[in-house]
Design brief:
Helix content of chain A: 55-70%
Strand content of chain A: under 5%
Oligomer: heterotrimer
Distance between the termini of chain A: 27 Å
Radius of gyration of chain B: 20 Å
Shape of chain B: globular
Strand order of the largest sheet of chain B: 1-4
Order of helices and strands of chain B: HHHHEEHEHHHHEHHH
Low-confidence stretches of chain A: 413-432
Number of strands of chain A: 4
Largest sheet of chain A: 2 strands, antiparallel
CATH topology of chain B: ABC transporter involved in vitamin B12 uptake, BtuC
Structural class of chain B: mainly alpha
Strand order of the largest sheet of chain A: 1-4
Number of helices of chain B: 12
Number of helices of chain A: 17
Strand content of chain B: under 5%
Number of domains of chain B: 1
Low-confidence stretches of chain B: none
Number of domains of chain A: 2
Largest sheet of chain B: 2 strands, antiparallel
Chains: A mainly alpha (432), B mainly alpha (328), C alpha/beta (403)
CATH architecture of chain B: Orthogonal Bundle
Mean pLDDT of chain B: 86
Number of strands of chain B: 4
Chain lengths: 432, 328, 403
Amino acid sequence: MSKWANMRITLRENKLAQIILLVLFTLVTAAAVHLMERSVTAFLLLLASLLLLYYTSFTNGIKWTIALILLLVVIPFASSGGSSYDSYMEVATQCGIYVAMALGLNIVVGFAGLLDMGFVAFFAVGAYTYGIFATDQANNFISGDLFPLSGGTFWIFILIGGFMAGIFGILLGLPVLRVKGDYLAIVTLGFGEIIRIIFNNLEKPVNITNGAMGLSSIQPPDLFGFDFTFPHQYYFIVIAILLVVIFAVRRLEHSRLGRSWKAVRENEIAAQSMGIPLIRTKLIAFAIGASFSGMMGVVFAAKQTFIDPTSFTLIESTTILVMVVLGGMGSVPGVILGASLVTILNLQVLTELTNWLNQLSMQGIIEVPNALSPSKMQRFIFGMILILVAIFRPNGLIAAKNRKIPKEVVTGGPHQHHEVPAAAIKAKARPE
Amino acid sequence: MFASILQTLPQVLIDGLALGAIYAVVALGYTMVYGILELINFAHGEIFMTGAFAGTSVLLLFQSMGWLGGLPAWVSYVLIIFIAMMVTGALGVGIERVAYRPLRKAPKLISLISAFGVSFVLQDLVRFIAELKTGNYIISVPQLFDGRFTLGFSSMTAMFSNATVKTNTIFIFIVAIVLMIGLDIFVNRTKWGGAMRAVAQDRDTAALMSINVNKVILLTFFIGSALGGSTGVLFAQQYGTIDPYIGFILGLKAFTAAVLGGIGNIRGAMFGGIVIGVLEMFASANLGIMTGGNFGAEYKDVFAFAILIVVLIFKPEGLFGKAVKEKV
Amino acid sequence: MRWRWNGVVAAALAVGLLAGCGNGGSATTTGAASGGDSGSAGSKVIKIATQSPLSGGSSIQGEAIRLGAQMSMEDHKEDFSKLGYSLELVPYDDQGDPKKGVANAEQIGADQAVLGVIGHLNSGVSIPSSVVYEKYNIPMISPASTATEFTDRKLKVANRVVARDDFQGPAAAEYAVKTVGAKKIFVIQDKTAYGQGLAEAFRDKAQELGATIAGYEGITVGEKDFNGVLNIAATQNPDFIFFGGLYAEGGLIIKQARDKGITAPIMGGDALDSSGLVEIAGADVKGALYSSVAGEIAKMEGGSDWAARYQQEFGKAPEGYSAYAYDSMTIMLDAIKKTLDSGGGEMPSREAVRDGVRATKDFKGIATEVSFDDKGDNAYAKVYIYEFADDTYPGKLVSEVSQ
């Protein structure tokens, strides 16, 4: 016991030991991923090196540099070794998409405390924004035979998709502002369903979404004549957007706006009496959260090349909510971890487990009833995660923590509060 | 246009009332729990669904044992409803004990998330059992009352066409009315009902008046869930097929009914249920005619949710509820 | 600060657990493969994947596709082991969800031993997944997807043995108008890619043949109460009702229409071709019609033997798609074998198999003859019209339409 404790203390205080551990771990897993034909375990462990990095005690700058090296160089290079390259990259890309969405929902649920159960609607708005104009669909209601737009417009559409989703976020926000707490959950749930039903039916009187038939042959993005088709190409797009999103979220969290959100979450009336504009604060939360989701919607549409309303059902909204709740509401690193874990569980672990059980029952070793196949147990697993986290760990895997501001900074006078240079706070604050 | 709307009106009303009666009884469960705990019991729709499955499996069991032949259909019907009520009542109590009670002091958001989780777990558990037993989770239900008769509205006035009524529809009305009157008497006239109202008004003061709050909450969950379960059986008999996912959207609509009537208000829930049922049926039969075929029956759920949103924005206390001022 | 490294340990444990599970999966997959290696003395593994919904509303038909494919593979195992190859089936569950289908397709693409895919059931899943297969040059043969879009994009990998919607829908319309004599038709569809495509094709052809369309309404999948739509139908008093959608809703519509006293014949598409329909609609199914892209197996040459074998092997009667999946797999394996023979026993490339599948001409299977045209459509595909004379599945074959 004491030996363990000693080791822990050494590790905690010795940065050299930490870096050695991290590099060793990364090298071993990367080599494993690179050399083995197909090993899900090795790939997951390689991703876990990011988690390990999070727990080291370097300054944020160094952490970010190492993270970038890991994400942009080590992981793509390690996976490119075998034939499973694109399969790994597909998982990583999907992870990235869901992380961005979960971060968006985290602003609404985690920071502002507004339970939104129809979040996938904004993802759908983003996806359809690109889908409609990057196919010949738009010719149905805009004359001139201008469409499909070329894949070069994809980059602008990332912004337009985010913007459209933001508008929808405000549209949903406006009526919802009068509604509180658990009513809000129900209203947003209803809103998510309404959006899906409308997309499913909007092929008459004017054919806008092509209804249930969906939109196919969506143009892939192209950059100076270079087409993006494989997951390992989308991976870099997703990582780029994700970095912007994470950067924005971290900046927002500790800004004046971020503090207003948290104040509204803790007590609306008290926040209002402290001079926080309630309506504007909530609306901005909805808009920003939605726009992250919308941007990823555009990427999703381009990557799938086909979208239809069945991709945007209630279970998707729930999945994103599970990610936020599991990771820790209001905690950015927590949400990233939660989203990655749930996506990997969904895409890799359950599928592999099912395949394995199928193999076993085909070889006649064990008889697994079809009903028990793990890939069908999604709802059960998600439900259990929600209940267990709510009861035993309401703060999630990595709890949110408020940045502590040293006493002398605070007592320096309330009017100076915002003028304190960020560097001063960072220097005094506990290193993260 | 109006002629064709009028034509179907009798049939639309009858179908709408049957659906509305089901919504009403399910809405009672939402309203009772909300009245006492101020918690939306998200899992209530799934309790309704479990009731449908419990009733059907008992019925199938009876059938395989050959007990049905000896009993009149209505006796076995009542028996099955009773068993389903006991099962779902116990289930409701269990859910309260496991997933809600530990969170009674936690923020609203947390208990809501837990409730949402329970709803998902129940869906999958029922699917699992059904699929294991029958190989498919969509179950066909043997019908106890298979008859139907025609009401001759057209002989009254030529504006109407005839309406067909299933015998089971009549049974739904009877059961729903008996349950609602029974609940009303229980809440307003008995000692336990008084305790329930006291806890709903002020939990701490009620505790001081030597009311066992935990027991009252358990009782509320038992009764609310049993009501939901009984409707499950009625639903299964009316439509003949059930699957584990029937509860979710139906629960949402029943919740809309509870909000419309004023949440926490039992008579309001009954009224709201009937209104939502009739409106939904009217919308699905006439939306297409009214909009010249541009927006058809597929928009009827949008219609139901729009009612919910409009009520919550303009009259959040509902038609019969009292507005509550929030304090810091 | 203590919690921090506690957290690390906890997280490491969690990841380890996850990884453990994942490991279990991959280790045994490779384990099974290497087991095959050592078992038949240096034989190489050829894998064929199936993708179909093994869970969800269409799981009966999805399972049928898997079992049909499995049966054909077992029939051919011996041939291939003589050539030094062992066959392996990898069933994937696409859950009827395009996203899941695409993610599975990426995994299939990564596995170099997979030379072909049998699937999917739903057109909505086949269309996006085929784009992924095209990237990896993996040929797919769908035993069930009927949407026109599936082959109209002229992909090299997309093939199907069944008829297209713009053939099935009109064929059904022709039967309805010409044989049944329908003049006033009410069309209901379930607002899915499949149901809508079929219903529209039916509606347009019926109009062309001179019938009036009394109404065209949509329903929601998963609902149980269709009284609203049927009330509209009842006022229109049509002499024929067509439903484009799946059996779970189709069964209920038949039943509730009869409850309402609507006596007009009700017809549906190939998705009603399931024992589930009879189970749901009960005795009311009598008189209902459905068009199917699957023929009556028992009537085919050698069909009844085949059906008996299927029954014996899997303990259930074949569904409509079982035999089509069987034939699809046989075509796939034939193409692989031909490439093997011409390549001197070398492990065939995916491109070669892809072109081999597309070159299939005059193949005689259990359920159908197959010749793929340049788009991957089957020139021999037929549409069959069935009627339920009794409340037993399958219905009685009343008409057969060829292209």
